[in-house]
Amino acid sequence: MDQLLQFLISGLTVGSIYALVALGFSIIYNASDVVNFAQGEFVMIGAMSAIFMLKAGLSYPVAAFLSIALTAAVGLALEKFAIEPAKNATVVTTIIITIGASIFLRGAALLIWGKEIYGLPPFTSNNPIRIGNATILPQNLWVMLGTAVAVLAVKYFFDRTRMGKAILACSFNKKAAYLVGINVKRMLLVSYGLSAALGAAAGLLVTPITFMSYGSGVMLGLKGFCAAILGGMGNSMGAVLGGLLLGIIETVGAGFISSGYKDAIAFFVILIVLFVKPSGILGKEEAERV
Amino acid sequence: MRFFKNIITLLSVFSMIFLTGTTMAQAKAKAKPLKIGSILAVTGPASFLGDPELKTLKMYIAEINAKGGINGHKIEFVHYDTKGKAKEAKNFVNRLIKKDKVDIIIGGTTSGNSLAVIDLVQRAKVPFISLAGSIKIVEPVKKWVFKTPHTDKMAAEKIFTDMKKRGIKKVALITGNGGFDKSGRAQCLAMAPKYGIKIVADEQYDNADTDMTTQLTKIRATDAQAILNFGFGKAPAIVAKNIKQLGIKLPVYESHGVASKKFIELAGAAANGIRLPAAALIVADQLPANDPQKKVLLAYKKKFEAKYGPVSTFGGHAYDALFITVDAVKRAGSIDRAKIRDEIEKTHGFVGTGGIFNMSPTDHLGLNLSAFKMIEIQNGNWKLLY
Fold first, then answer.
1. What residues of chain B lie within 8 A of the CB of A258, using their CB?
2. Does B204 contact A259 at a Cβ distance shorter than 8 Å?
3. Which among A213, A255, A260 is the nearest to B214, CB-wise?
4. B244 assigned to some structural domain
5. Average pLDDT for B283-299
6. CATH number, domain at B274?
7. pTM given for the model
8. Do B247 and A128 touch (CB under 8 A)?
9. Cα dihedral B107/B111/B116/B121 (nearest 10)
């Protein structure tokens, strides 16, 4: 029983990291039906730039703010110089462009920051908090808080703001959105910038726990992608649900079956879910346009 | 387009002139050059191993050549980057043998790369000194294959020796899913009974994982007296932090895979008290003055750090391989492949960074357990125990 509690807490810890990364996928997906495979790299760039700004002597809040701004700029540049020139490309082509961009960003990070692994100091104390016989680090609570804030912000943005609704409109029908006066080009640009900023924030939150190197974005992005697919692509609540579920499946699977088959168990569950409900748990059933 | 074509033609003409120029210059030199070929994983996931290896080789070859070479033979160095891929390693070794016609090959940064090329060097009868860890490279002995780094088997034995001293009989094992981790895990499982140690938990994690508290919670529920984590990279640092987070008070052992300052930096206070076997290089200044390795280690450290920054034990393996070769060529008095091989096998009492090498026809590594030092991390620093 003691063990189960720790497994669940560990699952929530890992899951909230996945959820935070998964959220980043939803904005660009909502704007253009494109899965941005460079999302993991946004997380990495946010964290790595903050690490080096701290090293350069900036204070934590300033470094955090600047690194988010810098990553958002990278996101804007990605849209402007790689996505926009291929404006007539299909969704699949655009996805392939984002894969290319992720490789490019990884290579650039390798050249700028080297191959070393770095960490960030935790936001607050590093002393574990006890819950019964289980423990959790304060930083884990920060990640969970960050996820909660991010999910509410994303939900508010798409449900309540004009710009959020305009972005959604672009994804449903670009031409119609254009005809009602929405600047489709700018909406896409905004979605990449926001997505990158969200990724960078995720990077800042998780690095004190997970550490970061130029290649860390790959695995984080992949797990976040799995979480997003599991919960329902484009649905921010789904991203959180998918992330937490994925984390708990992994830890409980590792705890009660075998830690060697942890990922296999998780992927097996994802496959089953997608087999029953291809759009993910909270995803909308969509009629295929023929 | 035409402009670019012209430039390319021009460049290739220049490079041809340059190449013929250099070969002609070499032909004029008295003795034939000793051709050392190398395949190293300078980029890719094993770059942290391959990068210092290449730097070490380049630095010392330049020095040897500046001093007039070995018995008048200048060293000609041909290097290819395998990116850690076994297929590339094979291709490049083929090229080194057939096209570059090298006299000896040093390299194969990872065990996978080294094992992949053994067949090729054996068939071509070219001496090969591997810089990778796996015991399988030299066991069983292959005529043309040698290696300089300590093996995971030695690391496991060194750890178990220390555990036995402290009266630890039940150990929980936790390892990653990389090649190094898996091979280390197999050696730990195989060696434990020899030291009367029972492995009571055998947990695994993915090297990219962000949290290992689940595995450690399972370990906490066993009656283990110590935790042994065989791995490298960031994962062992997360393991160390998670152990502290869960409040587990057991002694913790790591492998030589974390013998870099990076581990202490990442794990922070959680690293204190952890023991690991490591090459003497990281505690060179703590060695007693009469230690035969001390001088070699400090000289290598000083030279490397003056040029490239913090030294790592991995570059040391390349140093050992290069100077075992240099000594062998000196003794052989020739750059004949077979004669070099014979002399490498006769290496005796060679003081390197990894230990004191005594090779023989049945031992192509030539190190014993004393080559590993037992180290404890105290106050964020290495402390030599014995």
1. 204
2. yes
3. A255
4. yes
5. 86
6. 3.40.50.2300
7. 0.79
8. yes
9. 40
